[in-house]
Design goal:
The chain contains 8 helices and 15 strands. The chain has about 300 residues and is of the alpha+beta class. The structure holds biotin. Biotin (BTN) binds next to helix 4, strand 6, strand 9 and strand 10.
């Protein structure tokens, strides 16, 4: 806060923005309901104490100029941004629509999992993409989204080295701080739309008992508060780059596979158990050309298609 100690009279603010003192009072009250901390009242003048780290379109849009992300929707509370984005996509919302929520009451994870989404502590973001690709390419896009989160986090704080866990969890110190849920509507040969939903634990200082051993946040990993606004902007810019490269750049798939494996300590040589087809155990042996995880077992190399992979 540059001017946290400056008191400005209602008359001066009214003159500067060309309105009345009573309108300034009304606007101050409105800002307070949005979480902006303003001390004072019409008789004493106003002092800005703290601006909340809200993911408001007015703040985010200027940071995303030149990307596909030009339709930003913000919710204080919603069931799930992925559900909202899937419904909007079905109703014709354009590619590059972004759905951000301060709080989700029914945040969804992969399979039957839920996503704990406490108010204004994490990033809960879903984007609509309409790639001219076959559905078999969706996994590549989902891996690229993990790389985009990795890059964004590193841009903000290069002391942190997130570890990717196939298909697209991000861990730090062995605990998960980000999950990605990619859902699509497709014909056999053509994707109609894909919603990429990204949940990042940013400023949480604690988690419910059932998550305490497995979840962490960037705040817990670094000991400092993070700007959700700056991280969201870095993430969406990075996702835009990955997406453009995947669509237009020769060799983009190889680059995604290579970078994913470089940033993942478990994609190769890690003993895992896989909950798929009755379950099996083995040692990871990298990704195949389509992005599926290979696991070497006693009876040969098996491809993990969608099951949960546990490190043992
Ligand atoms: C997982 O790790 O299982 C995926 C978690 C994905 C959570 C995000 S939060 C934003 C978006 N909305 C949801 O309901 N889920 C995704």
């Amino acid at each position: 806060m540059d001017h946290a100690t400056v008191v400005v009279s209602g008359t001066k603010i009214a003159a500067e923005i060309g309105t009345t003192r009573s309108e300034v009072w009304r606007l101050v009250q409105q800002l307070r309901t949005l979480g902006v901390e303003i001390a004072g009242h019409p008789a004493t003048g106003y002092r800005l104490k703290a601006v909340p780290d809200l993911l408001l379109p007015e703040m985010l849009a200027p940071l995303l100029k030149g990307t596909i992300f030009s339709h930003i929707h913000h919710y204080y509370k919603i069931g799930s941004t992925n559900t909202q984005a899937m419904e909007s996509a079905a109703a014709g919302a354009p590619e590059g629509s972004v759905f951000l929520a301060e709080e989700q009451t029914a945040g969804r994870g992969r399979g039957t999992h839920t996503w704990h989404s406490a108010r204004s502590l994490g990033i809960h973001c879903s984007v609509i993409l309409r790639p001219p690709l076959p559905p078999s390419e969706a996994l590549m896009l989902s891996l690229a989204a993990g790389l985009a989160v990795h890059d964004a986090v590193r841009q903000m704080d290069s002391r942190i080295e997130p570890d990717l866990k196939w298909p697209n969890d991000l861990l730090v110190e062995g605990k998960k701080f980000c999950g990605i849920l990619a859902e699509m509507n497709a014909e056999a040969t053509r994707v109609r739309y894909i919603v990429v939903g990204i949940g990042i634990n940013v400023n949480q200082t604690q988690f419910p008992d059932e998550l305490r051993l497995t979840a962490t946040s960037l705040r817990l990993a670094t000991g400092t508060d993070w700007s959700r606004l700056e991280l969201s902007a870095a993430l969406l810019k990075s996702l835009d780059r990955e997406y453009q490269d995947l669509l237009h750049k020769l060799g983009a798939r190889d680059s995604i596979l290579r970078r994913f494996q470089e940033r993942s300590s478990s994609a190769r040589g890690q003993v895992v158990s896989v909950e798929e087809n009755g379950g099996f155990e083995g040692t990871t042996a990298g990704l195949d050309a389509r992005g599926f995880l290979q696991v070497r077992t006693g009876s040969g190399v098996r491809t993990v298609l969608s099951g949960t992979v546990r490190l043992i």
